[in-house]
Each structure stands twice: as C-alpha cells, then as structure tokens.
C-alpha cells in the first residue's frame, strides 16, 4: 500500500505543530513558528485565548451535542447576537465555509422559487478567481479550472463575470439571473478588495431587477478587516451572507445569514445539518463574539492594521525587485510580489520560522491573529526582513 492514511489531497509541509502559544505554533521537535497565517484567517484570538478555551471546556462538560429536533437556547442566543450586530434577520449554522456558501446558494434559489417569486431565476453570477469552497456547488461557483479538473459534471446555474468589473456583471444579467455571489475582498484570489463602485453597482442592479446580493465573507468577515463584517466598509448590505473561518476562533463553525425577505423560501424541512449549531460550536462562537464584537476590539484591529500596513509599505521599499505593493483592509493584508509568492512563503517558513500564506496573483497573505501584540509585530518584521535579505528568486 503506498497511499498515505491521510488522503493525499494536501501537499503537507514538514511543519508539524503540536501546541500553540498566543501567536506562535510549536512543532513536534520544539521549534517555534510565528503564526501570521492563523490557520488561514481562523485563529483570530490566537492559540491560547482563555475565554475561548474556557467556554469550550465548560460546554464540553455540560452538553456537547443534541439534535436540531430540540429547542436550542445556545443557538438562539448566538443567532440573536449576530442578528443584533448585522444586516441579518435570521441565521442557519453550519460546520464550515463551503456549507455556509451552499446554504446561501440554496437560500438565493429558494427566494425565487418561492410562490411569490420568478422560478426562472435560477442562475447566480459569480466572479473570476473567486474561491467559495470545495463542495460540488462551491467549485461550480468558481471559474478556476484547477478545482474542476476530474470532478465533472459541474453543477449548472453559474455564470462567471470579471471580478471588480461592473460592466462585465451587468452584461450577464438576464431574466434567468437569481443574483450575485461575491467575496467583497477576495482571499485566495490574492487579498483583492472590490471597489466601492463595483459593490454599490451590484447592489443597484439587485434593487433594479429583484436579485439576491450574496456576499461570501468566509475569509474577510468577523473583525478581520476592522469591521465586524467587511460589507460595512462599503455601506452596502447584502441580502444573504456566508460567514465561517474566524467565527469559531478555531472551532469548526459557519453560518448562512439572511434578511427575512431573502429567507422566504427557507421554511420547515428545506435544509438541515446534523451537527450545525450544536451547543459546543455555539459556545465557541459566543466566546468569539464576546471578544471581538465591540467597538474597542474593532478599533484596535483597525489601528494595528494601519500600523502593519505602513510598516509593510516602508519595508517593501527596501526590496523593489521583490515587492510591488500592499493591499487589503485591517489585518487582512497582501503583499503583491514581482515574483511568484509561493517560493518566498516556503523560504520564510522553512528558513525563518515565519508562517504566512501564498495566494493567487503573486500575493503573500499576511493574516495575523487579531490579538497579535507589539512584540509579535516586531518579531514579524525581524523575520520578514531577514527572509527578504536572504531570498534569491533565481534559486527557486
Ligand atoms: C475558506 C473559504 C471558503 C471555504 O471554507 P471551508 O471552511 O474551507 O469550507 C469559502 N469562501 C471563502 C471566501 C473562503 O476563504
């Protein structure tokens, strides 16, 4: 037998973390890594947050799981928190981002297939270089062929327009269009914030044609950009939104959130999940909301983001042959490189014990835990500078 016991879908590297300490990961052999990847925008409270750990421990001792056939005081409380803090009137909890996007796609379709709707409107317009997850529906929603290969046939009902190009989106709107599915800030695509004009233009098209505006905030949501959700930067509210990653702080949790109107098709029996919203996940989500959903925490993220960005901008000036520019919002930042970002990310990881994430469009993602402190930011720049000084693009 030559296949590994873990199905070999990830090209796993030699870093083998066994413990976490604030913004550091500790390897099997004791090596400490500075974690400015945060499990890809997940561990927003770092790896040893007392509030989060305590909430999970306490809930695990009390009640871990019950069926969604029963009433859920824990789920009602967290849903109410999200409703109070966002555009949404109602929340469906999932265990992952892809499931949250799946629920969002179903909600958008069901809106039009409701008795008051237009059942011909079945197509969602999505955007180039999007990433929405790895299920059949969510790979079908992305135009990235590398995710399609080997998995035909795709799910019907997606049209791809060019990201951040309003005319391209407009040109695809027909009497079959159900809505738009878009990341306000693309994550895997290379930390690319959509322009205000683009997001506002999509909203106007939705208003004009009674379409669903669906935001995928799985990566950019939950305080990452200095707002609880990134749509707040645009002054545009979606009808439906997927959230996950940061919302559990490391515990698997996601949600599909919607307005009352948008959720009109989602009645009894239309959707479900055995684990979705179980008490343990609700305890984690509540602890995360306790920590991040307040003005003080969000202002700190904004302030840290501004400082990190200006230091990064200064830093890249020293290496004009390597770096192009910095983009992103808050603590969701990308270093756009003049060379492929992956070899540099590997070099930082293996030679300087600094964890970041490579992304599309030659971008290095910098996604620190939102609780990173001054000493950790200083350590980041020490490692990044040493890494840039010792990096030879030609050797990679
Ligand atoms: C990570 C991600 C997903 C998928 O989330 P999973 O939890 O891996 O299923 C969907 N959309 C965006 C924008 C993401 O970044």
Q: Which fold name is given in CATH as the topology of the largest domain?
A: Aspartate Aminotransferase, domain 2
Series of secondary-structure elements, N-terminal to C-terminal: EEEHHHEHEHHEHEEEHEHEEHHEEHEEEH
Number of helices: 13
Cα end-to-end separation: 33 Å
Count of domains = 2
Please list the strands of the largest sheet in the order they lie side by side. Answer: 4-12-11-10-7-5-6
Helix fraction, binned, reads 25-40%
**Shape, please?**
globular
Q: Which strand-content bin applies to the residues?
A: 15-25%
Spatial extent as radius of gyration? 21 Å
Major sheet description: 7 strands, mixed
Task: Name the CATH superfamily classification of the largest domain.
Answer: Type I PLP-dependent aspartate aminotransferase-like (Major domain)
Name given to the CATH architecture of the largest domain = 3-Layer(aba) Sandwich
Bound molecules: pyridoxal-5'-phosphate
Helix-and-strand structural type: alpha/beta
Unreliable segments (pLDDT under 50, ≥5 consecutive)? Answer: none
DSSP strand count: 17
Care to describe what's here?
The protein has 396 residues and is an alpha/beta fold. It folds into 2 domains: 17-48 and 295-395, Aspartate Aminotransferase, domain 1 (Alpha-Beta Complex), CATH 3.90.1150.10; 51-292, Type I PLP-dependent aspartate aminotransferase-like (Major domain) (Aspartate Aminotransferase, domain 2, 3-Layer(aba) Sandwich). The chain is built from 13 helices and 17 strands. The chain has a 7-stranded mixed sheet, sandwiched between helices. A 4-stranded mixed sheet has the order 1-2-3-15. Helix 2 runs antiparallel to helix 10 (279-292), helix 3 (73-85) packs parallel to helix 10 and helix 12 packs across helix 13 (374-389). The radius of gyration is 21 Å and the shape is globular. It binds pyridoxal-5'-phosphate. Residues 96-98, 101, 131-133, 183, 187-188, 216, 218-219, 244-245 line the site of pyridoxal-5'-phosphate.
